[in-house]
């Protein structure tokens, strides 16, 4: 530790031109004795072992109480209720509430870049964020930042007090307190918080974004651990997203990077640059701070297999170096930070997109950004209007200007996924997101229908267009917005939509073609309101209502609930002339109670991309349930308020007695293990008696196939098939309750998911990939021709129940509203209605050990054939097992 402090001190002293500090100081002064050391508070040297959450919080509170340079608090709570501490450090006048408001307001004004915004002053305070622990099994950076806290709070050395004068440092040491306690990468709901930045599904992420909006930084450090024992810091690997602003990219590579290398070289530490970690996907703790906040966003990795004291020392050295560089270059860095916002406005006004670049010396741009002028993004509100409003709010809450048409606008627009623009008339109510604004880079990065990767390497997914993930309609304007056009536009505010004025009526129709609208439907159910849904489109008072529209009886209580809920959920509610509209054929929606099958395997990290944090079984690793299960439970429990229970295979026989209406089988962590014979039989019995089975991706499909619930056959992926997370165009048949109101063109998110084809029964292909020639893909993929026309969502009747199979993960990371609304529909679907019947000759396929055949085949006798998959060596055992059963003279075993 002493060696690190000496090297960091030498680095700071080597920086020229350190001015006299306003904070009282002495060259080489000793630390203030009133500020407690870590050991004095917690009883052991910092870095000797991993600190607990309680020890981190205890030390923060002790330093906060002892120093007027520190103001600490609880920014929010995790999904499991644990504290998310935040620490503001700086000169005493910086960290008071009034001081923080002043500094934050000044930074926000510079970021907005409105006409008349004053230029950066030499005495402006810059903001720097030092964050850690987003992955709970990567703990060392959090501990290291406690030393940063002590140094800033206790120093009297003029070479260091300059950091207090010039910077407001925000320490966010426990981004994932649940994961740290559980020893796992993800949070309490198995979400990887370093993939959640744009969607902001988790409270931990929302708290962080809210703070960043108040205190936008010029630099953002995100501390991690990786495999091995070496370190990584930028420059990053390619690809770099083309809308990463030039200023912060230059600072990362040419200002901070060289200083970090010098510090690590002086310390004799091993490290790499240009490896593994790109700056592309807009869900990381470096890309989002860089693109949305204009910061020099930097991921710091330290090998998890090194000894713990070394990990703490190196993370401390890297963070300390960033603070030294930011303080020394404060005014120049802040001016460049402020200038990028004005430049973004000018780019947007001209419709200019940034070009693709590469940073690794040996790489070249293979895929340039198309030559296209984009003056605005358009979100049509004719379908899924409530989800469109949710996306508009996602933009507004980070300062993006969003407008809405008050009347029709004739213009040139290229629709999402289309090759060229056409002349269109956009109706009133359409959302328009202009590009001539300071958040231009973020708007393009989030809303573009392709990320335009320059170089085919992916640390994560290759596409994340928010309109496509949400299954929305829209496009980009190829014509500038004229003064006359702007008079048709009104700004969209932050918050709920206005509450509708509802007259008394026999019944009300509630639009239910959006995930946000289904939240309202389920809220009504929880309030005791009987909800019916139209199984066919209908008209009332001259207005057409879609299939799937929710219908609720009138009454003062229901009317009050609707008025409050419609605005909160941005959902259209219409008074009906009758409680039973002609042609609607309404069916009562059952109140769902869902069982989610526990993942029988365990792993660390996200199953859809390599976990290159700590290796399985490495330091700090612990078994965690597959993310798919957590994603499903988050959607159903937290987002929709559905009653959910987790069940093991041994509990599947109790579903009916517990009042379960739906069994969800999520994807598995390690492949797709099927259930035992008894488990498969229990699933069959549950569905045959009227239950709904919902299977997701490989395991959900595999269990359904083994249990004979689906006739779909899996097709082997062809050689060269590569799908690193892309949105793909699909066709939706809305005759299934799973897709009521969702008919037409949409999109699903594919991460190399199973490919299936129709079996002996066609089933109801509720969703299928678009045919060849229309198979538009957002992102980088190869070999996808095989997907054309194949099923994505199947809805088949089995006995009195139904089986709904998603070949994709319908709740992927909680950010795919386009399929999440289908999953919600599946949970609400009446048993069997609208599904295509399975033939009576269906054969449940039961892959089990031969000695378990008696329990399965005997129980199934008289129902259907049983197909048992065994290896050649087990055939004799299988025949012997069957001979022990009393199956009647017609029973036989055929190979």
TrEMBL record:
The UniProt keywords, alphabetically, are: Carboxypeptidase, Hydrolase, Protease, Signal
Under InterPro entries, the record lists: Class_I_gatase-like (IPR029062), Peptidase_M14 (IPR000834)
Which molecular function term from Gene Ontology is one that the record holds?
metallocarboxypeptidase activity
Q: Where is the Peptidase M14 domain?
A: 49-326
> Which PROSITE patterns does the annotation name?
PEPTIDASE_M14 (PS52035)
Span of the signal peptide: 1-21
GO biological process annotation, one example: proteolysis
The identity of this protein, by name, is Carboxypeptidase
């Amino acid at each position: 530790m002493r060696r690190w402090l000496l090297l960091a001190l030498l680095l700071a002293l080597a920086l020229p031109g350190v001015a006299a500090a306003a904070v009282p100081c002495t060259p080489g002064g000793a630390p203030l004795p009133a500020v407690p050391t870590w050991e004095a508070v917690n009883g052991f040297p910092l870095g000797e072992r991993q600190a607990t959450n309680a020890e981190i919080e205890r030390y923060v509170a002790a330093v906060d109480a002892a120093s007027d340079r520190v103001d600490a608090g609880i920014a929010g709570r995790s999904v499991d209720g644990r504290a998310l501490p935040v620490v503001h450090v700086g000169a005493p006048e910086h960290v008071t509430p009034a001081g923080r408001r002043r500094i934050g307001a000044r930074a926000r004004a510079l970021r907005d870049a409105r006409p008349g915004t004053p230029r950066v002053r030499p005495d402006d305070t810059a903001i720097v964020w030092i964050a850690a622990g987003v992955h709970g099994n990567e703990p060392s950076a959090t501990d290291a930042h406690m030393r940063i806290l002590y140094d800033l709070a206790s120093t009297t050395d003029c070479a260091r007090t300059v950091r207090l004068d010039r910077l407001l440092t925000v320490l966010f040491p426990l981004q994932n307190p649940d994961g740290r306690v559980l020893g796992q990468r993800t949070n309490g709901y198995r979400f990887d918080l370093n993939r959640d930045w744009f969607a902001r599904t988790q409270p931990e992420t929302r708290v962080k974004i809210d703070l960043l909006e108040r205190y936008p930084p010029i630099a953002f450090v995100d501390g991690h651990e990786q495999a091995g024992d070496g370190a990584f810091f930028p420059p990053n690997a390619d690809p770099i997203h083309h809308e990463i602003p030039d200023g912060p990219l230059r600072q990362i590579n040419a200002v901070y990077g060289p200083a970090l290398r010098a510090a690590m070289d002086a310390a004799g530490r091993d490290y790499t640059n240009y490896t593994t970690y790109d700056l592309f996907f807009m869900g990381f703790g470096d890309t989002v701070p860089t693109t949305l906040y204009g910061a020099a966003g930097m991921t710091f990795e330290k090998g998890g297999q090194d000894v713990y004291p070394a990990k703490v020392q190196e993370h401390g050295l890297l963070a300390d170096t960033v603070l030294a560089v930011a303080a020394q270059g404060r005014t120049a860095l802040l001016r460049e930070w402020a200038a990028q916002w004005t430049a973004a406005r000018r780019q947007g006004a001209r419709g200019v997109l940034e070009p693709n670049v590469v940073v690794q010396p040996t790489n070249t741009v293979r895929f340039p950004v198309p030559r296209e002028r984009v003056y605005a993004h358009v979100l049509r509100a004719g379908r899924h209007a409530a989800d469109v409003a949710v996306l508009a709010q996602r933009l507004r809450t980070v300062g993006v200007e969003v407008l809405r048409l008050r009347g029709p606008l004739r213009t040139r627009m290229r629709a999402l996924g289309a090759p060229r623009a056409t002349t269109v008339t956009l109706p009133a109510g359409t959302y328009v997101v202009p590009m001539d604004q300071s958040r231009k880079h973020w708007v393009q990065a989030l809303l573009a229908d392709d990320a335009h990767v320059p170089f085919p390497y992916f640390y994560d997914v290759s596409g994340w267009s928010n309109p496509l993930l949400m299954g929305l309609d829209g496009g980009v304007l190829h014509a500038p917005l004229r003064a006359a056009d702007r008079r048709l536009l009104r700004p969209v505010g932050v918050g709920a939509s206005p509450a509708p004025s509802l007259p008394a009526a026999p019944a009300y129709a509630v639009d239910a073609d959006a995930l946000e609208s289904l939240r309202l439907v389920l809220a009504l159910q929880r309030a005791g309101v009987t909800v019916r849904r139209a199984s066919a489109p209908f008209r009332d008072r001259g207005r057409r209502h879609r299939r799937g529209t929710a219908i609720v009886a009138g009454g003062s209580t229901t009317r009050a609930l609707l008025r409050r809920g419609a605005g909160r959920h941005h959902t259209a509610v219409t008074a009906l002339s009758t409680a039973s509209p002609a042609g609607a054929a309404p069916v009562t929606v059952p109140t769902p109670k869902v069982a989610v099958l526990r993942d029988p395997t365990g792993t660390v990290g996200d199953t859809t991309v390599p976990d290159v944090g700590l290796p399985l079984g490495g330091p700090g690793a612990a078994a965690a349930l597959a993310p798919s299960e957590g994603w499903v439970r988050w959607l159903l429990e937290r987002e929709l308020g559905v009653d959910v229970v987790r069940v093991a295979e041994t509990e599947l026989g109790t579903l009916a007695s517990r009042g379960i209406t739906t069994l969800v089988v999520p994807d598995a962590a390690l492949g797709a293990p099927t259930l035992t014979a008894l488990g498969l039989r229990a699933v069959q019995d549950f569905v045959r008696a009227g239950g709904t089975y919902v299977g997701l991706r490989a395991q959900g499909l595999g269990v359904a196939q083994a249990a004979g619930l689906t006739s779909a056959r899996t097709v082997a992926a062809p050689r060269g098939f590569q799908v690193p997370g892309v949105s793909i165009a699909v066709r939706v048949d809305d005759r299934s309750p799973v897709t009521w109101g969702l008919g037409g063109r949409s999109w699903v998110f594919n991460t190399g998911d199973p490919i299936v084809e129709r079996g002996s029964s066609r089933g109801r292909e509720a969703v299928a990939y678009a045919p060849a020639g229309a198979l538009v893909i957002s992102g980088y993929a190869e070999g996808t021709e095989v997907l054309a026309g194949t099923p994505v969502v199947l809805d088949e009747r089995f006995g009195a129940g139904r089986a709904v199979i998603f070949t994709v993960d319908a709740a992927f990371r909680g950010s795919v509203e386009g399929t999440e609304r289908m999953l919600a529909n599946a949970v609400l679907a009446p048993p069997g209605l609208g599904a295509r019947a399975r033939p009576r000759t269906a054969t449940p396929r039961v892959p089990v050990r031969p000695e378990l055949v008696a329990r399965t085949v005997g129980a199934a006798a008289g129902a259907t054939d049983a197909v048992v998959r065994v290896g050649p060596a087990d055939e004799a055992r299988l025949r012997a097992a069957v001979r022990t059963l009393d199956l009647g003279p017609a029973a036989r075993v055929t190979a």
